[in-house]
């Protein structure tokens, strides 16, 4: 009966998570048009699908390895190119991540802590945002949670040999989704296995080496494939300056994110770097709600298990979640390169797993005044932090922040004497404390779900708390009917119906017309693809019909780095072709020939 109750609660959690992530999913339209256009291209052309090309003409790829696009591209191929087909896989990844996290925590602490961990992950605003959006972070998170679960399974003496290699494969899949960000969990996974696995030290090192081999194979095969594939038979590798997948992995999407030395980027984004970044105006409402509570719970749990045997599973889990949280939080806090607030979704499983494991241990020791006091402090700190985060928009649900902090203080006082309360009353106090802790992030998640999101840099919460343009940074243009008709006319006679600077600009026209549009310069307009000479050859071969004049943030603010080929191309077109205005957009018909020498 008790087991069926747990399974019923799990089914309810997963059903509620599915509703949260899938309800009104199509309201965001193409969401991130950059990736939606690539999914469209992959649905039409297998080469574009394999390499993650931005267009079916295979001019240039997105600036990531394409594992997430393989899923959305197949979905679009099967169900048609539409919002639901592109966004639904991310929601499925989210529900799966909650289920796997539940399984990981349940294995260590029992079903109720597992349910708590799943609920915390599901209701983290960054998760509610990214599991409804077509950036690669959803697949990344699912891969990392799977790696954590497999590592915990591998600690048992009777565990099958393949559990740890499975963890390596899962991280490899995460790498193929978002490159080196996936590696931030490796120190925690490796250290926990070496410390806590029930096997001789030599065997632990051997098994870890096998897991590393599995990681290299599962993530490295694609890099080898791209490196060996003739460059003339594949699209240019977007995000690199030398058409190199290794450069993309190690530079633009690797160490460059930490150092800020990302050739092709839009300059450093380290204005808020430091210990307070995760709690600041940019990232705070995405992830900060339960971070202090998780840290306290993990530390307290490690204190309580300090005398446990080396192979103690609870301590191993605390080290795993804590190591994941610390390494990722430090990197995110001090990174000098491109780092968007929604990246913090990668912290959510560690926060959820660490909080649930630590508080479950504290609850079991609640007869000890020190444990009860720690639980009380966790509740008070969470209530106060919730008040501060909600107060950033003083006009949005002002009653909620007051209700949370009052309830939290009341529960904290009762937790100090919980041992003297009747069992049912004490349990009710604990449950109410959980409700108070989750009320803030849950409300913010609901507000996030209720609003559509578009562009490359979405944000959480009600619209009144967001900064930036209404459509989101790097949102795609929405061409009028006359321009759309012009771009579609005779499109099948050209490799590219049009060309525009920047991937998001090109994506808007491509999604509107259903025809390939070349993204000159890649995502930021700073990749040397194509060069001016290559573009001129395409025009001479009548492979591009239209050129659409467009601007990029780096052009406007003058802080970009990388190739200036896109600027050269735009200047050459403006000098050599006659401009036309269609629906307020300046376009050039390249099929008419140019008026001056190249």
TrEMBL record:
Transmembrane intervals: 84-105, 112-132, 160-177, 208-229, 287-304, 316-335, 341-362, 369-390, 396-418, 425-444
Location in or out of the cell: Cell membrane
Primary location: membrane
Ranges where the Putative mannosyltransferase YkcA/B-like C-terminal domain occurs: 483-575
KW Cell membrane (keyword) present: yes
The keyword Electron transport is annotated on this UniProt entry: no
Gene Ontology molecular function: any one: glycosyltransferase activity
Keywords from the named record: Cell membrane, Glycosyltransferase, Membrane, Transferase, Transmembrane, Transmembrane helix
Enzyme Commission code(s) on record: 2.4.-.-
Superkingdom to which the source organism belongs: Bacteria
Pfam family, one: PMT_2
Topology versus the membrane: Multi-pass membrane protein
InterPro entries: LipidA_mod_glycosyltrf_83, RgtA/B/C-like, YkcA/B-like_C
Coiled-coil annotated residue ranges, if any: none
Domain Glycosyltransferase RgtA/B/C/D-like residue range list: 63-218
Name recorded for this polypeptide: Glycosyltransferase family 39 protein
Organism of derivation: Mycolicibacterium pallens
Organismal lineage: Bacteria, Bacillati, Actinomycetota, Actinomycetes, Mycobacteriales
